[in-house]
Amino acid sequence: MKIFDEYQEKLAARKAMGLYRQRRVLESPQGARVTVEGRELLNFCSNDYLGLANHPALIEAAQAGAARWGVGSGAAHLVCGHFAVHEAFEQRFAAWVGLPAALSFSTGYMANLAVITALAGRGDTVFADKLNHASLNDAVQLSRAHFRRYAHNDLAALERLLAASTSGRKLIVSDSVFSMDGDFAPLAGLLELAERYDALLYLDDAHGFGVLGHGRGALAEFGLVSRRIVYMATLGKAAGVAGAAVAADPVVIDWLINQARPYIYTTAAPPMLAQALLASLDLIESEAWRRERLAAHIALFRQMLAPFADRLIDSATPIQPVLMRDNASALALSAALKAAGFWVAAIRPPTVPTPRLRVTLSAAHTSEDVAALAACLVKLLKDDLLKEGA
Questions:
Q1: Is residue 57 classed exposed, middle or buried when 0-12, 13-18 and 19+ CB atoms within 10 A define those classes?
Q2: Which domain holds residue 354?
Q3: Would residue 162 count as lying in a domain?
Q4: Global confidence as pTM
């Protein structure tokens, strides 16, 4: 059939450009070392920043949650799917991040779709960083609001857009830690502009929660307090489980419960996961050594990659991108690292404008793990530089 031939041709074209994507099958739990298609690899492409995804306390909590609440939730939160353990987690999460109320979601993608489409619509304007996550961009498109994008972290450009806007409600949207660069948004500046131009500020802290601000996230890290802030954290990264939570002023949370379609019309996440998330918050709060070890890993990696500092993006987070000259080079180095026993993802357009290796560090790694990766990567980069010169 013609339509299948067209798909096949487009897939072949993607392969030729080095843009073809495929899944790898894990045969072990998530961790610093994983078994992938029959081979053990040191895992440097997971977002399990604190090493909690396979923690015994979370497994025990999930098992106890399944025994107490069952496996499925049975319905949407607004029908009969909102369990006492969901409520307990939302209250605990809100208190932990320093906001008065919270709402839980099945995924971070769903949370972004829900919040943005509920807070902005026709006649409103959303102002968004050009490097925001795809889920934020998709949400703005679905909202039918005016979409105004500003150059990455450019507060002056954002202010010009805000000053020129004559629309209804204004919503500034940004990642707090950008997932492919690992750098911070200028959060204090964003909040100051939100206050000056009567806008709400929606922050996606997927890669900051659990890591920044003694585990409380980007708001605590930068000391931000305001009713204008709507804060989202995903719970399948540093928290080690699944889902997402949004915290904000109570009237915003009530508005989302009544207007956010992805929340209203979705079956609630299994209550056993909320039980595991409560255990995760306990560990995030009590085990500061995980963040301390992570900080040491980041410093060690950047120190060892100093000869190729021009390839490193300035990042103080567990996300350490190494820029490559083209797709083929990124794929070749990723394959060479895998052959040496290291799993590092090659990230290519359109996900990012510049091909790169996205190295992610975890508290589950040892310093020896990090040093071994860095040494191998330095050697491969030297070889790649020689090839480029030839």
A1: middle
A2: 15-50+288-389
A3: yes
A4: 0.95
